[in-house]
Design goal:
Blueprint (H helix, E strand, L loop, with lengths): L1 H6 L1 H5 L22 H16 L9 H15 L8 H7 L6 H6 L4 H24 L11 E3 L11 H21 L4 H20 L3 H16 L4 E3 L1 H10 L4 E3 L2 E6 L2 E7 L4 H5 L7 E7 L5 E3 L5 H8 L6 E7 L10 E6 L1 E3 L7 E7 L7 E7 L7 H5 L8 H14 L4 E5 L8 H8 L6 E8 L4 E6 L10 E5 L6 H11 L4 E4 L7 E7 L13 E10 L15 E2 L35 H15 L3 H19 L1 E3 L2 H29 L19 H8 L3 H18 L1 H13 L8
Parallel strand pairs: 12-13, 13-16, 16-17, 17-20
Antiparallel strand pairs: 1-21, 2-19, 3-10, 4-5, 5-6, 6-7, 6-8, 8-9, 11-12, 14-15, 14-19, 18-19
Helix pairs in contact: 4-10, 7-8, 7-9, 8-9, 15-16, 16-17, 18-22, 18-23
Length: about 725
């Protein structure tokens, strides 16, 4: 169930317009109107959303205001189509959306959309005409590419100037990527024409879908309306075997963004596509034309990327850590099935070298998702697959190899089965409550580990990041509350709610058109200490440096997210007290990486990324953009030249088989080789931290001495 909630990201993102436009002359445009079937669906959905949601939801002026603001933001998130006068005109609906829903009146939503369609057509018409004029890249000006928090522009002239800069930036980016003039003009003209065409193809069902999701997400961000098409997509995504590349898509300004790479899928196995990458164009096969998808709706990009097994799709992407000017790269991926077996837990052993004595062996268990073969379990098959069974087996294998500590790697683990989160926790605690669940009526139930004993009672760390969510947070929180191990990494996503799907078709006539589904939040998770995993997530005991403001990602960044709250703690007995051990290990970690060259690179990259996010604009001076691009390329080249020696001298944990040789098919793939050679800094340091704790725990006098130093000296300020 929880994995389903995570996978639905791509479907929710698909309900959002990404700044499209319509290529229909104004005098010939046809106004879209709601249908009687949509009014019936509105009436039914409104009753369910206001009566069955976990959150007390009332149709009032406050909700009306959120619906209006959310709907306008869906249509024009970058504030580059509507004029301030349009927004002022829409104010007449500010306190009336609740009344409209109460009476199943969809006309306000369609009136707003029809105005949007006209404004988009005007902008695209201007952009295509501007391509026929020359560009001057010696003028000192910039383009503000993120206007999500900027004021609405007052006049058409101001919008023209914004779009002049946008077109100029689009052209400059292509020029810097070595596109010829005619090719760049043709590509951009086609891009803008496609925006026109795609909006002109939208129908009343699409508009209804946008508005119903504005309504649903005004209540809470994980609540959604799934149109019949969205419902079909959801059913496809829930099969154990999917055909595609295995990536969840979202939106960032005008770009389709990789929200998450599905563990075990073709993209994950290829290794080049990463969360945060922005898709610029998509091509079919090895030679098919690259179709520019900037500004496309996410669901249309999904349709373009999907395809039959064993076929090739090519994605041109802008990596997360580069600006709009690029450079971009083209990634070819063979579509295949995303199988449960390929998402199974796996293990490895890292040997942490010591100055005196034998290396400390640390076992790492990588768990991409909390999986369970429900059918096999229900039928009591002896060999049904589950993450708990597989992790228990891996623990036995690691013990046989002589490990003295374990790292559970839950980075990018978006959740999965609640039952598995409970039973997996039971491998590391004796017995007791794991998570509390409160429903909309206030009733609290507890999921417990009832099996005595532990599969592993030794030193333990849980490695998490901002994409660790739901079941991952339940597991990490329980380990932290029981003081059974330490949590390392970034604050987690903060999704502490439970959703259920309601099929609207069950409430309609047998021969009526399909109405779709509602995904409604109906319960909330709480830790055994009484606090919620909602909104705040799980805060690590030892935090690694990370890019961006933690308040700008995860649940805490979503509008209308449920707040953090707490209930009474469940009765449980902590396994120990790791406070002193954790404090010393944190001190040693900070002291160690303060002089680490590669961590220095990481901190530099984080600082550069944060500065670029705060800027929200790019220069339109060609000389300045070229200089920035050349400086980045020089930095990458310098690091590449140092990478080999650093892997040998600074990263003895990067395991490589000296006898391994490349075959002819891979010998020329230098980029892939370089990527594989890069050490996983976070995993490396997690293993070292566990090794430190093992050694400190064995030497109580050293621990006492080090703890006194930690108390008297501030930790290094180089990491934050």
């Amino acid at each position: 169930m929880l994995r389903a909630n995570k996978l639905i990201i791509v479907l929710l993102a698909a309900t959002v317009v990404a700044g499209a436009s319509a290529n229909v002359p104004e005098e010939e445009s046809v106004l879209l109107q709601p249908t009687m079937e949509q009014r019936f669906t509105t009436s039914l959905a409104t009753k369910l959303l206001t009566n069955w949601h976990y959150k007390d939801t009332r149709l009032d002026d406050e909700l009306s205001q959120k619906i209006l603001d959310g709907y306008v933001e869906m249509l024009d998130p970058n504030r580059s189509y509507f004029l301030a006068s349009d927004i002022t005109e829409f104010e007449r609906y500010r306190d009336g959306m609740d009344d409209a829903l109460r009476h199943s009146d969809l006309q306000p939503a369609f009136d707003i959309y029809n105005r949007y369609l006209d404004r988009v057509h005007q902008r695209v018409t201007y952009a295509r005409a501007r391509l026929e004029e020359p560009f001057d890249f010696d003028v000192e000006e910039d383009y503000r590419y993120d206007r999500s928090e900027a004021p609405w522009l007052e006049t058409t002239d101001q919008l023209d100037d914004l779009w002049r800069r946008r077109v100029k930036n689009d052209y400059l980016r292509l020029k810097l990527s070595k596109k010829e003039h005619d090719e760049a003009i043709e590509l951009l003209d086609e891009r803008y024409a496609n925006l026109d065409r795609r909006v002109s193809e939208l129908n009343s069902d699409d508009i209804f879908n946008f508005f119903m999701n504005a309504f649903a997400q005004a209540i809470e961000p994980h609540t959604a309306y799934l149109s019949p098409r969205g419902s079909d997509n959801f059913e496809i995504s829930m099969k154990l075997s999917l055909e595609g590349i295995g990536a969840l898509l979202g939106r960032e300004s005008e770009y389709t963004r990789i929200a998450r790479v599905v563990p075990g899928g073709p993209a994950d196995q290829d290794g080049r596509l990463q969360a945060g990458d922005r898709v610029v164009s998509v091509g079919q096969g090895a030679e098919g034309k690259m179709v520019d998808v900037v500004g496309w709706r996410v669901d249309d990009v999904v349709d373009l990327i999907r395809g039959p097994k064993d076929t090739v799709v090519r994605l041109e992407v802008l990596p997360e850590d580069v600006g709009l000017e690029g450079p971009s790269s083209v990634i070819d991926i063979v579509r295949n099935e995303v199988k449960l077996e390929e998402q199974a837990a796996s293990s490895r052993v890292i040997e942490v070298p010591q100055e005196n004595g034998e290396p400390v062996k640390i076992g790492v268990i990588d768990l991409p998702v909390f999986y369970l073969d429900f059918n096999g379990r229900a039928r009591n098959l002896p060999d049904y697959r589950s993450s708990t069974r597989d992790v228990a087996r891996l623990i036995g294998e690691l013990e046989a190899e002589g490990v003295t500590g374990i790292v559970m790697d839950l980075r990018n683990n978006g959740g999965g089965s609640l039952l598995e989160a409970t039973t997996l926790t039971g491998l590391f605690i004796d017995r007791g409550p794991v998570v509390q669940v409160r429903n909309g009526s206030g009733r609290v139930s507890t999921e417990e580990d009832t099996d005595p004993g532990m599969a592993w009672d030794g030193p333990l760390a849980v490695l998490v990041n901002r994409y660790s969510a739901s079941a991952s947070e339940i597991f990490a929180a329980a380990i932290q509350d029981y003081d059974r191990g330490i949590i390392i990494g970034e604050p987690t996503f903060g999704k502490g709610t439970v959703q259920s799907l309601l099929d609207l078709d069950e409430y309609g006539m047998a021969d009526s058109p399909r109405m779709g589904q509602l995904k409604i939040t109906q319960a909330q998770f709480f830790r055994v200490n009484g606090g919620s995993t909602q909104n705040r997530g799980v805060v690590p005991d030892i935090r690694f440096p990370s890019a961006g403001d933690p308040q700008e990602y995860g649940e805490r960044s979503l509008p209308n997210a449920l707040p953090w709250t707490e209930i009474d703690p469940a009765p449980f007995k902590p396994a120990g007290d790791l406070q002193k051990l954790t404090a010393v290990a944190d001190f040693q970690f900070r002291d160690r990486v303060a002089e680490d060259v590669e961590f220095g690179w990481l901190l530099d990259d984080i600082q550069e990324y944060n500065e670029s996010r705060e800027n929200r604009s790019v220069s339109l001076l060609e000389t300045e953009r070229r200089a920035e691009m050349e400086a980045k390329e020089a930095k990458r080249e310098a690091r590449k030249n140092l990478q080999g020696p650093l892997v040998d001298e600074l990263d003895p944990l990067a395991e490589a088989d000296p006898g391994e040789e490349l075959d002819d098919d891979t010998a020329g793939d230098e980029e892939a080789d370089e990527e594989d050679d890069r050490p996983d800094l976070m995993l490396r340091e997690s293993a070292r931290i566990v090794a430190d704790m093992i050694l400190l725990g064995e030497d109580t006098q050293l621990l006492a001495k080090q703890f006194s130093l930690v108390q008297s000296e501030p930790a290094s300020e180089k990491i934050n």
